[in-house]
Every structure is written in structure tokens, then in C-alpha cells.
Amino acid sequence: MLALVASTLLIAYLLAPGLLFRFFFSLFIPLEKFRRTRSEEFTFGAVTTLLPLLLTLLSVLNVGWIGNHPFSFSDSPAQKRTDYRTVASSLHSDAYFLQHQTEFWDASSRVTQRQGRILVWLYVSTILEAFVFGWLGKNFGRFRRFEPYALLADKLLIPNISSWYVLLTTFLWPREPERKVMADLLTSDDHLYRGEVVGYEMDVEGNLRGIMLNDALRFDRHSYLREKDAKSAADKEQFWKKIPGRNLFVFADKLSTINLSYVPPASSIPGMLEGVLKKLRIEGQVRMQPPARPSPKG
Prior knowledge:
The chain has helices at about 1-25, 40-60, 65-70, 75-90, 95-100, 100-140, 140-145, 145-155, 165-170, 220-230, 270-280, and strands at about 180-185, 190-200, 210-220, 240, 245-250, 255-265. A hairpin with a 4-residue loop joins strand 1 and strand 2. Helix 4 (about 75-90) packs across helix 6 (about 100-140). By secondary structure, the protein is an alpha+beta fold. The radius of gyration is 30 Å and the shape is elongated.
């Protein structure tokens, strides 16, 4: 019986809060997916539960309304001590249980309600913690310049979130100016694709299944090589061909290399450069214009 009670408490106080934290935190940032052992799950639960548990115990002991809700009933410190002593003695000794069955069931009912009250507020605190840390993590690019935040993020956040999320989104960059993740993908069958990364898929182990590109282009390498051999020089940009359809999904097992760039919109570049000039105490304005085409040689 003691083993059953101990297992129930471990699940209720460690495993369940850890699962709650992972679920609600994942609404902001996908956590790394891998098969944890049972001890690793309990360790993760202990780490994520420590702060909410301390907050819950302080609130239950010091805030009257929280300490009596839910499951409100007449109680006292002496009654608590008696109930826990009765339950512990009954679980430890069958003889004591047989002699005090009525007291045991009354005491166990009150103990269950007290523990249920703590667990309710623990779960609420854990969910709030997940929302706070999820929001802070989602804004990594905005807050990473603050040294205490960067230190905690490097130790606790980065190792536990999906590495593919870090690479294939603008997670590392501030929200302003908004950026696009552009990718050049070279496949094992020697095809080169280019486009904006608009999605990706992972399997249950956290391995990349594929990348989805928007308005994808394919590089016509054979035509480029023929043109280069004929003219000894060729403009590579002319050999990017639009692929029919809006989205292209490239399976990860076909990928040889991935080249990523995080490109701000062209309209924001002048403002960014003017900000750099201002920091250098240089007054000036920046304007963008398309490059002049070289005049054809006669």
C-alpha cells in the first residue's frame, strides 16, 4: 500500500506537472523530442515543478482564500496532525488499520482533499510558469542582449527546444524588422532548390522529415554549364526556373546540404542602415535602387 501511495504522489507531484509544462510551453516553442527514460521524466518534472511548488505552498499557507479553496471544510492545525498521523499509521500497520478503520476513512478523506487543493494550485502555477517561460522563450531574439536572460536561455532554453525550430525559423532574430528564412537546398540527385521556408515536419524522435518552400525555384545547372562553356561567363540568376505550384516539399533524406539566410524585407533595409549611421554619429539618408544593367558589348 505504501508503494502504491508513493507512486501516486510521484506521478501527481512530478510527472503530471512536467507533462503540463511541456504541453503549454510547446504552444509557444516546440520542445526537443526524444525518448526520455522514466528517471529523466521525473528529473524534468522536478526542475519544472520546483518554482510552482514553492509558490503554491507559500500561497496555501499564507493566503486564506487559496488555503481553503477548493474543497473547503472546517480544519485546524491539530486536526491536520491527527489526520496525517492516522493515515500514516494505518498504511504502515495492518493491525492499526483494522482497529481504526472509521478514523482512517474520515482522516483519509480530509487528507485527500488537502492534497487535492495543493495539486490544483500546483497545476495552475505550473501552467502559468509555462506561459511565462514560453513567452520569454518566444521573444529570445528580443531579449537576448540582456546578459542574465541570455545566460539562463543558453543553459535552460536552447538545450531543450528543437534545434530545427532554431534553424528554420526567425527564433534567433528580433521581431522587428520581420525576416524571412530563405533556403538553398542541394539534393542527393544533384538538384538545387531555392525558396522561402514556410514549414517543416519532424518525426516522433525529433528528426527532420522535410522542408516546405514557398514560391520555389530550381537551378537549371545543365543549361548553366552549357552557357558557361560557350561564353566562358554566365549570369547564374538567369538560370533559376520557377517551379509550378505554390509550395514545394523536399524530403530530408534527399538533402545533401542546406544553406540558410535570414533576410529582412527590402523596405526595412534603409531604416536599418540609417540606424547604423546614427550610432556612428553620421548624418545621412539611405535609398535603394536596382543595380544598373551592364551595357551590351558591341
